[in-house]
Amino acid sequence: MTKVIAIVGMGEGIALAVARRFAREGFAIAMVARNEAKLQGFKDRLKAEGYDAYSFIADGGDDASLTAAITAIQDQLGTVEVLVYNIAIPTMKNVLDETVEGLMSDFKANVVGGLVAAQAVLPAMKAQGNGTILFTGGGFSMYPSADFASLSIGKAGIRSLTKMLAEALQPQGIRVGTVTVCGTVNPDDPKYNPTSIAENYWAFYANPSSDVEIVY
Questions:
Q1: How many domains would you assign to the chain?
Q2: Model-level pTM?
Q3: Per-residue pLDDT tens for 98-143?
Q4: 3-state secondary structure the chain
Q5: Domain of 26: which CATH number?
């Protein structure tokens, strides 16, 4: 049976590179994002490259739509072998100007959606006794910026969430990790290009002895 990777927060950079990396290993790609037109474009590109790709519409900040999308993936494709949560709202606003509404809205997508997505795939992963959950982290989790207040809080939150889930799920054979990307993603950068970053996601999956956090 074909293994399935679900990528929540499908986009042009890291997510597309991760999709291609796992697709090369025979995975079916289940892509989740808000924009239907962009998702269709990614699906067309991956299929043209010979890969098995599917699209599902959901908003990472809306727990009901996100849960429904994960359920649809599992109903259509089967158990999710790997979940990648790749959503980040890059609001540029100084911490002194941040509002309760803005901070809470961003936090729902940056962190809460990660827990919601994980909870949605866990029953099937637990039933089969294995699975991998990966979160896209960022350097702001280690070096917060006053000008990117909500994203700094969000990346710190996703880092903590990763470590808590890893501890809670390790006895059940489910591995949880984060790739903490400490640079600006740029296709022309020799280190921080999406293809190089994606290798870290595959390395975590393929190496069961790897640490919970890969700082890159």
A1: 1
A2: 0.96
A3: 999 999 999 999 999 999 999 999 999 999 999 999 999 999 999 9
A4: CCCEEEEECCCCCHHHHHHHHHHCCCCEEEEEECCHHHHHHHHHHHHHCCCCEEEEECCCCCHHHHHHHHHHHHHHHCCCCEEEECCCCCCCECHHHCCHHHHHHHHHHHHHHHHHHHHHHHHHHHHHCCEEEEEEEEHHHCCCCCCEHHHHHHHHHHHHHHHHHHHHHHHHCEEEEEEEECCCCCCCCCCCCHHHHHHHHHHHHHCCCCCCEEEC
A5: 3.40.50.720
